[in-house]
Structure formats: structure tokens, C-alpha cells
Amino acid sequence: MLGVKTIAISSFLVVVLILGLYGYSASKMEVKDVRVHSLSDISTDGFTLSGDIDVYNHGLIWVYADHIDFKVTLEESGSELATGRVEGGVVSPGSMAAFAFSNEIKWVPTAEMAIGLITKENTYAKITGVVYAIDLGFVSIKVPFEKRIDLKPYVEQFVKNKIGEFFGDSGKQAVDAWNEMFG
Questions:
Q1: What is the pLDDT of residue 147?
Q2: Is 117 helix (H, G, I), strand (E, B) or coil?
Q3: Three-class SS of residue 112?
Q4: What are the Cα distances from residue 82, in Å, to 23, 46, 70, 119, 126?
Q5: Residue 13 burial (CB < 10 Å; 0-12/13-18/19+)?
Q6: Tens digits of per-residue pLDDT, 59-70?
Q7: Residue 131: which of 67, 60, 180 has the closest Cα?
Q8: Which of 94, 96, 110, 145 is disulfide-compatible with 31, CB 3.0–4.6 A?
Q9: pLDDT tens per residue across span 88-126
């Protein structure tokens, strides 16, 4: 028969092994992609940015991603457009989990910024963030990420729609003129 001491030592070693495997697996997590699906509800006050953050687990056992914090900044000015938090979930070994986000981005662009958004070839924003694989306060494993997106196609579509709404039938002529001038 096994003694209490042997069972206690064996149990302790199993717990240490599991914690070691968990820590190893958490350290092997990677953000494979940040996919933007849409910019919707575009208005003069802002827009809604929706997409997925794809997290891959290269480790040996499942890992619970506690949460994902991110922010969206306008690249040229460094202006922070939005911040957000996505609740995490389990990421199985050797697989990817997609964590959906949808955030309203409030902005009131100046006339100069609005003209820049329309006339420049590209207008980039950055989505940067951190996946918290382990967040115990005193110990954490963080997986940083960054994605660059071009806002120009979405801003152009918004302007074209607003011109059409404002001018009605003659809006088509304005949109055609827009396309001729700006491509």
C-alpha cells in the first residue's frame, strides 16, 4: 500500500507537471491574424469596426485566454480612436480560436483631417493589443499583436453615399464626378 506521504508527493508532482505544461502552452500562443470584416454604421460621429482576432495555440494542452485588450489609433496622428476588451476562451492545442470584436469608434474629424482622409492615397489605422493567456496579477503571459488597416475605402463609400443622399438624383452626377477626380 502506498503511504500518505507517497500519495502527497505524487499529487504534488502531477500538479507541478500540469502547471508546467499549461505555462509552456500559454507561452506558445500566437496571434495569427486580426481580420476586419466591416466598418459599418458610418456617420459624422463615427463608425463601428467589426472583426476577429485569431489566436493559435502551438502548445501541448489547452489554454484559457483570459481576455484580449486592444486599441485603434490613427497612424498619421497617433490619435486614439477606440479601446476595447474581448472576453477570452479556450484555445485547444494545435488549433486556432477566433475571438470576435465589434466596437464603436467615436470621432469628430476636423475639416483638415476629413480632406486628408478623402484626398490621400491611403489612411491607415493600427489595431494593437495583448492577449492575456495567464493573468494572475503577479504572473502573466501576454501575447502582443498589431494590425494595420486602410480606412480610405470605407470613408470614400461613406462620402459617396452622403453625396447621393444629399443631392438625390443629381447625386449620381456628383458621385460620377467624384469617381473621375479621385478614382
A1: 94
A2: helix
A3: helix
A4: 31, 10, 8, 24, 11
A5: exposed
A6: 999 899 999 999
A7: 67
A8: 145
A9: 999 999 999 999 999 887 765 555 556 666 677 777 889
- One-letter amino acid at 40 equals S
| Kind and range of the H or E run holding 22 | helix 4-27
User: What is the widest separation between alpha-carbon atoms in the chain?
Assistant: 92
pLDDT of residue 118: 64
The residues, ordered by sequence, that sit 6+ positions from 48 with a Cβ below 8 Å of its Cβ are: 38, 39, 40, 41, 102, 103, 104, 105
Cell numbers that stand for 126 in this block = 493600427
C-alpha cell at 174: 456628383
- Residue 31: count of CB within 10 angstroms of its CB: 19
- The separation between CA 65 and the C-alpha centre of its own chain, rounded to angstroms, equals 14
pTM score: 0.74
* 146 alpha carbon, distance to own chain's centre: 8
Q: Are 93 and 71 in contact (CB under 8 A)?
A: no
Helix (H) or strand (E) holding 162: helix 152-167
